[in-house]
Amino acid sequence: MKLAQRMSRLGTETAFEVLAKAQQLEAQGKHIIHLEIGEPDFETPANIVEAGRQALSEGFTSYNPSPGYDDLKDAIAKDISKSREISVKKENVIVTPGGKPIMFFIILAMIENGDEVLYPNPGFPIYESMIEFCGGKAVPMRLHEENSFNLDIEEVKGQISSKTKLMIINSPNNPCGSVIDKENLEALSELAKENDITVLSDEIYSRFLYEGSHHSIASFPDMIDRTVILDGYSKTYAMTGWRIGYGVFPDDLVEPISRLVTNSVSCTASFTQRAAIEATDGPQEDSNRMVEEFKKRRSIVVEGLNNIKGIKCAIPSGAFYAFPNVEGTGMSSSEFANKVLEEAGVAVLAGESFGKYGTGYIRISFANSTENLVAAIDRIQKFVESKS
Question: How many whole angstroms separate alpha carbon 345 and alpha carbon 383?
Fold first, then answer.
């Protein structure tokens, strides 16, 4: 069967490939510590589970409006208005099965063949994949280790051309854990306005901050009309398998994006939306405790890695990933990731999985127990020492 040529431009998410390889090793009897998947190792809070269960028993199993239920959109609009200090109406909210459809739909709706899209690199691999699949040109904005994995604004300015239609930013960032400060966000907002660029602001890790407070580019003057905010429930409420996310869109994009939802997924599952209302409006203690636990784990991972000869690890300000530089071990990042899995039983991701500027790094998720993280650091240290 011959596939369309565009399928050759569609990438993947390496985490799932590494997971499959790790599971094969487990089937052979090898003990693996999983640090490759970006998924909270907590249960969905009980009040949210109960809301989902109740919704099922009440018959929320049918189609619903493509953009989502009004009462959920209203809850989201109020939450975003408060947390981002902007004014959002429910009519500008579109609910989707996870956050990825928001990325896909905005690129499909806006990008013609040859249009350029700026995106962070190292960055979530699906950005580049979707841009190129849709016929756009992916232009990587480099995140510099010496700048705490942040952008160089002058460098970004030089990358903008007459073909630049969209800029994707992600703060806190996956895989680096970096956070764009208010000054740089403002500078990016000025570039967007000066060059008539729409911004997709991926804020899925907005609650995972270990210092300071979250700032959205949408909060700067005149930016709400050219910004799409992407957020969701997978990370904050440990709801990865529930598949529910959302976007906050400028007026002009609401109807076309809603049409894309209708033409693709029809709608987001009804019972998950009822659970999401409880997540948004209900108690936040479980979510807050999860963030505090991740902060403790961050210290264990970063301190442990920095005690290993040949590895240096910046302190992530947000999300739940460390992105250590492993060049000092004498191994490439892909070689390191493959061998540490096969020989030491620790599953991590090679940095180039997140783009060309990820070469020389690995990503470690600290979404695992303290006990397993300590054991993993010990295994990595012994592995590195065995190679010297």
Answer: 10
